[in-house]
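Subject: NAD(P)H-dependent FMN reductase

B.,
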Amino acid sequence: MHLLLISGSTRAASTNTAVLRTAQQLATVETTLYGELSALPAFNPDDDREPLHPAVTRLREQVEAADAILFCTPEYAGALPGSFKNLLDWTVGGTGMDRKPVAWINVSSVAAPTGGADAHDSLRKVLGYLNASIVEEACARLPMTRQSVDADGLVSAPAVVTGIRHTLAVLAGSVG
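Prediction pasted inline below.
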């Protein structure tokens, strides 16, 4: 089984990316941490044809190759971050998300106004358009702060680590 991990954050010290790096360390299956969010061009339907931008080609290849996808994205201005929405827009032209098991981890701090709920509601809507198979039991809200990330860029908070393990197990178990 191969699991693709996609962070919706471009921040160098992102807690969202730290969660996925931690997931990569904990996983008992093959994983790929997607790393080209900032390299994707702005989505333009006129450009969604061969030859595709190389970063778009690599994104679609990674989505196709994955058996399941785990997202971790912040909320920005009450919605998905623009760069992450752009990534999702580029997947519309491919077939890689069709019926693919997907889940997300929400790590918005308890102090966040909506706890990231608006971003994840939007993500749910977009994934519906992509016909992805949302694995509800694998979706988790694991509030944390930047202090939960060690100097090595991994999450150390025991409750969050336990939640990540649960999400991984349920998502992996959903793959036929």
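Helices lie at 15-26, 54-65, 82-92, 117-129, 158-173.

T.
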